[in-house]
Amino acid sequence: MSDVHALVLTGYGLNCDHETAYALELAGASATRVHINSLIDGSVKLKDFQMMVFGGGFSWGDDHGGGVIQAVRLKTNIGDNILEFIEKGNLVLGICNGFQTLVNLGLLPGFDGDYKTRSVALTYNDCGNFRDDWVNLKVNAASPCVFTRGLDQMELPIRHGEGKFYSDESTIKRLFDNKQVVLQYATRDGELADCRRPFNPNGSISDIAGICDTTGRIFGLMPHPEAFSHWTSHPDWTRIKEEMKRQGGSGDSGVTVGIRLFQNAVKFF
Ligand SMILES: NC(=O)CC[C@H](N)C(=O)O
Predict the structure, then answer these.
(1) How far apart are CA 72 and CA 74, in angstroms?
(2) Across 56-176, where does the E strand assignment appear?
(3) pLDDT at 246
(4) A single Pfam family, by name (predicted)?
(5) What digits encode the pLDDT tens for the residues 49-58?
(6) Which of 97, 122, 134 to mutate to test the pocket of ligand 1 (most atoms within 8 A of CB)?
(7) Catalytic sites, residue numbers
């Protein structure tokens, strides 16, 4: 059994927990799916894990906005435990609904170690509907993000209705200045999407698809790395050799960029 123990949240409409736990196991972690209530009632303890994963789905049916109720429930009941977990040097990952939750909790962007203030939002896609597609992503090699080390371009699926990254101009500037912008939507050639659809699927400001805190240990992204665990998950998998070359860096190992992201987390420990 792996020494790296990852907790994957489940319950109340989260629906990517099996896939996420599977991807973590493929990457070499030991993953446990834990119901939100088990953390709250104390039957499962965060101190037994090194990584906490807020996965995708529709927690509380997206009532009041994606991730809002999940954030309130966790903050009210185990907010201090989560802060303690972070202070210990552990990792936190938020995927899609999980990213929305991290932002609502204030764990991201985490300016100056402030993990309580909400200063960015993920809101309704500009197109007004739910998008289910594959996107190309440019990775910021200068960011401190632990999860994207060694990755430069990625192609991953998205599926969301509230993925538009939004904040005021000065906060966006601060995110770029701090190198906290980890992922941006791009064209197939790796150029920034420049807010054009379909490359930027939701109208995110500055094409932002994922950010980290200043330590690089807390990372949230709208695309789903866990949904690209095998080459055959890709819509063009029959031409996969070419895809591998285009994405660069994956070589002949056959390990997808989705799994490499989780492997980086395992390697961190
Ligand atoms: N796949 C997801 O996690 C979706 C997140 C959220 N329910 C939305 O639609 O925006």
Answers:
(1) 6
(2) 91-95, 121-123, 131-139, 153-160, 164-166
(3) 61
(4) GATase_5
(5) 999 999 999 9
(6) 97
(7) 96, 224, 226
Q: What is the pTM of this model?
A: 0.96
Q: Is the ipTM of this complex over 0.90?
A: yes
Q: Among 12, 15, 60, 160, name the best residue to mutate to test ligand 1's pocket (greatest count of ligand atoms within 8 A of Cβ).
A: 160
Other beta carbons less than 10 A from residue 189's beta carbon: 8
Neighbour tally for 6: CB within 10 Å:
26
State whether the Cα torsion 69-47-222-159 is positive or negative: negative
Q: Which residues of 104-139 are buried (b: 16+ CB within 10 A; e: fewer)?
A: bbbbbbbbeeebeeebbebbbbeeeeebeebbbbbb
Kindly tell me if the per-residue pLDDT of 251 is higher than 80: no
Kindly list the protein residues whose Cβ atom lies closer than 6 A to any atom of ligand 1: 56-58, 62, 66, 96-97, 130, 159-163
Which amino acid is it at 232? Answer: T
Residue type, 61: G
- 185 touches 193 (CB < 8 A): yes
